Amino acid sequence: MEATPHSRPQDPAGEAPARVTVPDLQQMKDEGRRITMLTAYDWGMARLVDEAGVDVVLVGDSLGMVVLGYDATTPVTMDEMLHHAKAVRRGVRRALVVGDMPFLSYQVSREEAVRNAGRFLKEAGCGAVKVEGGGAVVETVRFMTAAGIPVMGHLGLTPQTAAATGGFRVRGRDLASARRLVADAADLEAAGAFALVLECVPAALARLVTERLRIPTIGIGAGPGCDGQVLVVNDVVGLFDRFRPSFVKRYAELAPTVRAAVGEYVADVREGRFPDEAHSFTGEPPWLADLRAELEAG
Ligand SMILES: Nc1nc(=O)c2c([nH]1)NC[C@@H]1CN(c3ccc(C(=O)N[C@@H](CCC(=O)O)C(=O)O)cc3)CN21
Ligand SMILES: CC(C)C(=O)C(=O)O
Ligand SMILES: [Mg+2]
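Above are the sequence and the 5,10-methenyl-6,7,8-trihydrofolic acid SMILES. Below is the predicted complex in structure-token form.
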């Protein structure tokens, strides 16, 4: 059985906005329309990203690095992911919302994987989940899709195991690892994955995988030959400056703008320029004299 994200309504319990059908990524690949994906971690940014017309909003476990201040994604918990996925879901009307399953939420057993993936769908209202890796993860993906959970794969640089496998570096540079990546990609497709993220791999390898798969590939540091592209939104708008991967293109520099705005605010308050009359509830209340007299009388 194949579980696709559009095969189910993406509706959480509660206060979700009315929505149209999520984009059909398979149809987009088949028609040669490129897929756009960005991360978001809260309601406000999710709304902006959705309104700008992105097809897929990923609640990435990069949360740990760009929002929570860890230097890796591995400490991120299911509860943290769900907390943010719920907020994101409330901000999205149109895009497919994908919950990134955190480290050790799907590796311990396939039962635990289904239970945790189910929480993204049932509690947060996500339309799909994403898991990292090939090899042993493939059977888990098969089990999850058989249970009706739409699963996105993720190969190449897989940050959850990066520390154990050579760091934040390009993958698939030699023939053996390229061969393994091609095989993992085919296995994930056969296991029912509906799309595949390719992170930090040579453009030629990503193109080859994209040509050989029926399901769409979504690249990050994987060149122009993929069916779509994903980036971390904080990188795109210049709100993250701890490091900048070479594949990131910055479309805005918000950090200096925020710093300057906050600096002006601080100076205004210190100098007594803000708040002023224009930002106060002005006018003399009719009872003011009475109140003063009353207080003075004790
Ligand atoms: N802000 C942010 N952006 C991301 O893209 C991102 C995260 N955080 N956190 C989770 C992972 C980690 N990622 C990273 C982080 C660093 C590089 C990096 O600096 N790579 C080098 C490659 C060097 C080499 O292979 O020799 C580069 O130059 O891009 C790559 C991916 C991608 N993901
Ligand atoms: C960079 C994307 C693919 C991701 O997994 C994340 O943001 O966690
Ligand atoms: Mg991730």
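Residues 60-62, 73, 100, 159 surround magnesium ion (ligand 3) (CB under 6 Å).
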